[in-house]
Amino acid sequence: MIRALTGFSTRNPWKIIALWAVVGIFLTLLSQALVFKVTQTQNGDFLPAKYDSAAALKVAEEKFGVKSDANAVTVLVGRQDGKPLTQADQQRIGEVAEKLGRQRVEMPEREDDAPAFMFEDYSQTPKVSPAMVAPDRSFELLSAQLTGNITDPGMHGLYQAFRDEAKDDFADAGMRTGFTGGLADLVDTTEAEKTTTTVVGALMVGLIVLINILVFRSALAAFVPLIAVAIIGGAAGGVVVGTSMLTGINLDASTPSMIGVVLIGIGVDYFLFLLFRFREQLRAHPDLPARTVSAEVSARVGTAITSAALTIVAAFATLGVATFGQFRVLGPAIAVSVLVMLLASLTLMPALLAVTGRKMFWPSRSLRHEPRAGTAAGVGDLVARRPLTLIVASVALLGALAAGLVGMRMDFGQTPGTRDTPAAVTATEIARSLPAGVSDPATVYITAKDGGALTAQGLAAIPKALAEVNGVGQVGETLFNKDRTAARIDVYLAVDTQSQQARDLVSGPVRDTVADHTPPGAQAHVGGTAAIFADISTAVDHDLKTVFPVAAALIALILIVLLRSLLAPAVLMLAVGLGFAATLGASALFFQHLLDRPGVDFILPLVLFLFVVALGTDYNILISDRIREEMDRPGPARAAVARAVRHTAPAIATAGVILAASFGSLGANSNPGTQQIGFATALGIMLSAFVISIVLVPALVALLGRATWWPVRPGRSKGRHQAEPPAGPSHHDHLSLTH
Q1: Residues 672, 723: Cα–Cα separation, whole Å
Q2: Residue pLDDT, tens place only, 231-242
Q3: Digit-coded pLDDT (tens) for 179-223
Q4: How far is the C-alpha of 40 from the C-alpha of 61, rounded, in Å?
Q5: 458-468 burial string, b = 16+ CB within 10 Å, else e?
Q6: Closest CA to 575 of 706, 710, 403, 397
Q7: Dihedral sign, Cα of residue 420, residue 424, residue 430, residue 431
Q8: Considering the entire predicted model, what is its pTM?
Q9: What are the DSSP calls for 385-404, one per residue?
Q10: Angle at the Cα of 577 (from 576 to 578), degrees rounded to 5?
Q11: Cα dihedral across residues 87, 89, 92, 98: positive or negative
Q12: What are the C-alpha distances in Å from 22 to residues 16, 243, 269, 313?
């Protein structure tokens, strides 16, 4: 199958390239046009209905008409001279608020001049209502509701238009304004980070190009992989979006960007694996046509790439069994994207090699001679000579980093990283006068079980009891829906609603108090940000215990099939497991202890397990496959290991640096959770590449010898090798293209 695909592609390269170009452009446009129609941004929507906060969201939608994509914007209005508000001031504020609630806000034209069919028009009349006045009367708060996808640039433009209108109207009335809330904070943060994001993206692309130029001394080898990966990435995004629309399963807002990071990393990795082997074989066989070399190299390396890609697919596909919907959606989406990348690796990439041939490495003259033994050869020789010493050193390093797991805590906080944005400044001003949770209350929803009517007298015990709970700053009025079959009570916490303290408060005393005072014939649910993340923490804890063993079992099975061995997969899994523990431990040491953060981000262990284990296994598969190939030749096992490291280490090192840079770019994000994912994943990949794949695994194989491949050891059948001359490095070390 693999040989058939690569063979067809190298025989018909221009057809394959044209097909990928057309399909890639079409699917890229499809993805850009529809991506915001298939994403949802409310974390609570990803929770199963059995969780209390998810049940509260359902009541809010069915009984109170709250839309899942409704975004509350808190508007602070105060006097420009800083004096307390008078009755006349409050009257003017009410008049302006009423006016804003009647005016339709038109969504501005998009800056990218995209066709109208590619985006949704969010123009609407916002719902504006008074919220409360500060105790010292320094300001009054209004609540404005804007409906739409919070991640869509069009929605950002609508908010900015509303903000500007409100500023102007209140300024005419002699008032100053401030805006905060999820949408306001996201827009302000995006604006603040726009330059940083652009610069970091350009630097990442520049770094990839620079590394490839330094390694291959060629412009084509530097730019062709990036262009190819861009086309493939667009195609993968279109497939994911199309699949989402066909199945009706919405994506998490972070999924498209995560797919982009993953595909850039692994796509360039796979292309590098092919380029290094292609250059090696062109040197070894200068008389063979480049297309013949391309076909054979693509078929041989394609086997390792297929196994590596299927490892990632298997790991991420296991997220389909998770209970938390964000995981359940992210996993299959990345798995589908990697399958698209795998197909391109077996078709488009071989076709590009066949078309460019030796010109791929122009103007470098490296094809004319065998390179001198460099660092990789020195490392290979050292691994072969002193495997036990390197094993002890590697395990000691990884073990020391893994010690950071002791006392590690999970952080479910969603605190924005950029604290000097206008939205953050407004939130700080509000928090000085009102309970910390005033702009993001927890909400208690009560419904009648038999469809009867609820009464204020029957529910009076709930707000009274909640007001006495330590940590509750204020309790709002009891509000009923039209037929009085449901009621809601807003609870304003005295602590930051995105803190661990708030989650403990809501999931414990608040829920217990509500349960104890809910009258017979009614049922109550507690919702809001703190309640949602309290339930998410429970769901994530369950999913970690489920996904880890399932993913590990699938990866082990793939390794057994690829390596045709029982001992070798066990060695690789132990090495990768130690690398995962070291990466997570180092992250805890850095963020929790050194930077004094509350803990590591709750999603980090799962992300690290999938990325570091799955992507790190890519490098282990590449080195293990090459070691086995070298051990199929006559000679000492340790010499085979040295040759394998010499030829494979440059590819792994280059790919590791590029993949780490790809993920490391996330560290420039202001969000603490994203920073942690960027730092930890980059560190994990570097450890996987430079410590585990280049040193630890080869050293273990050198120590175990051909017994590593038990029960079927390589090198037993030597009949086909007897006719080979005892050639030097330029021939003996290379794959024979005649069999």
Answers
A1: 61
A2: 998 899 889 888
A3: 998 889 889 888 877 777 778 778 878 887 888 788 888 888 888
A4: 15
A5: bbeebbebbee
A6: 397
A7: negative
A8: 0.76
A9: H-HHHHHHHHHHHHHHHHGG
A10: 90
A11: negative
A12: 10, 19, 24, 26
